[in-house]
Design a protein that fits this description.
Elements (H helix, E strand, L loop, with lengths): L2 E3 L8 H5 L5 E3 L4 E3 L9 H5 L5 E3 L5 H14 L1
Antiparallel strand pairs: 1-4, 2-3
Length: 75
């Protein structure tokens, strides 16, 4: 299951640097996880100092949808 970023993100980019597959993308006001690239390794979850990232099974559905839509729009 891919990771999901919620609105606690402050766009510090710690997760971007930690992601081994480049699944985390900068969006407008925060980063998002591209579910098509994420390998669910959990590195971003443990590295996020804000606790803004979780597994999609633990996240509110609105954040799952938000991450997928923003990642698709980013290309």
């Amino acid at each position: 299951m891919p990771s999901v970023v919620n609105d606690s993100c402050v766009k510090c980019l710690t997760c971007v640097e930690a992601c081994p597959v480049g699944a985390i993308i900068e969006a407008d006001t925060q980063v998002v996880v591209n579910p098509d690239v994420c390998i669910d390794c959990g590195v971003c979850i443990s590295e996020c100092p804000q606790g803004a990232i979780s597994s999609d099974s633990d996240a509110d559905e609105k954040w799952v949808k938000f991450n997928a839509e923003k990642a698709a729009a980013a290309g």
